[in-house]
Queue: 2 jobs
Job 1
Amino acid sequence: MMMDSHQVYNNLLAIVEKENIFVDEYLRNHTYTRLGGKADFLVTPSTYEELQNIIKLSIKENIPFTLLGNGSNLIVKDGGIRGIVILLNRFKRIKVDGDYLIAESGAAIIDASRKALEAKLTGLEFACGIPGTVGGALFMNAGAYGGEIKDVLDHAIVVDRNGDIQKRSAADLDLAYRTSNIAANGDIVMEATFALKPGNYDEIKAVMDDLTFRRESKQPLEYPSCGSVFKRPPGYFAGKLIQDSGLQGHSIGGAEVSTKHAGFIVNKNNATASEYIALIHHVQKTVKEKFNVELEREVKIIGED
């Protein structure tokens, strides 16, 4: 792609403030795995209108754009990402309207669950330990401990592939196990409305405290990681298969299969994305050879080698 970087910068400057544009920015500074090469342009819009205008600019000028979310469930390759990368970390507002909780896509889903607790609303307890944004949670129909987004989502407000704002009901999004049609449709989630139910504060808090304890005691939160790497294969648990394959502690470069939870791969010592991805492939290959089970990635891999 031929791109006049100076012109792109000036066009972006007409849309967002200068401090919201980062040129040749290392994406490892913005991902949970601490992996990833440079983005040509990293932009952090502050309003829905700015987001719309960035998308319309990319369409008009034929500039590729990538939505990074908050970088929690993805791996960016060492070559980085060309064009414009959009980070929605300024879209963080959360409010309650009766039994509905409305959260912008850049808000942490954990914060949304805490806001529900404050309002004595039940339904989002399962999300109190999911490390990602509201937008990312919708994108992959995030779930934990028996609950998932599709159980509580009423509707979402999105920017479509043409830069127009649309309302999508939960049924419109084809929410299934760790998947949705959001990417296929070219939508970017701006906010989500969750339909919750009145509950008892102490009971809701007790559930959240229990889930938080279970997460912190079992998951390797002391190292950078993308969270759970693989989807649960039908009839099995990915972590158990990996553990039974003798892979805990196995490393390639600075990437290691966690000794605390085999379903996690941690960036233990300044790993590169190539090392991390190579370890994912090694785990898949080994489990296939030992148990004839295909491990499907839950984490998304983007960018260039």
Job 2
Amino acid sequence: MPLFQAVILALVQAFTEFLPVSSTAHLVLFPWLLHWPDPGEAFDVALHAGTLLAVILYFFKDWLTLLVCGLGGSYPKSAPAEEIAQHRRMFWYMVVGTIPGGILGKLFDKQIEEHLRTPAIIGVSMILVALLMWWADSKATQARKLEQSNLGDAIGIGVAQAVALWPGVSRSGITITAGLFRNFTREAATRFSFLLSAPLIAGAVAAKLPGLIKVHKAGGLDLPLSTLAVSILISGVVGYVVIAFFLRYLQTRTLKVFVVYRIVFGIIVLVLAFLKVGAR
């Protein structure tokens, strides 16, 4: 893969992983439309490593607090007992919320990768989730803050995150939508979504990394390490900026623009798939 293709796809990943528009859809459709070769599993891992870097860096203090408190410590030391208890609960909510996606990913990731990453399926998913997102954004109460999270939220949003394995759904889109249906504010639903993404992305990277290291040592890696490093850096830095922008954006605005984008994009994809524009 030429470096310019890697840079473009890294930018696509950085923008679409955190905005509710489906990174999988865009990463499948860009090469399909432009007749680029499949970048391969190594590149996919590099992009997700960059995404993981972005979400960990942005929420570093939050995760440090959750980890220390969740494992029995107190952070910060001066925090009252009630706040420490809330952080401890939130840590275990993140654990519970990660389980559905982890199980479904382990069981069905290969089948989804081989059989469902088609333009027609992605186009339909883009539109259906857009309508669901519009419903949640316009009808939900949106009164609860992140500190009011409970076990039901963790289970509901965790199941939604598992559904995001279906191409075109969007992990951030469906989990934010689930959070809105749980009556979180838009910002609280998005923070819950982004925090919950870190363990699952880390698990996906960790699961694929040993095999890729083995392939690299055997000389079977098609992509140069420099290209993978540039991809990680770009998706990480730009992803960090996108997270900051999106959280600020939702403080005063709705998800309407993303609903419209998904519907228009989905229709275009279905038309092009029908016309077989991307056929090689």
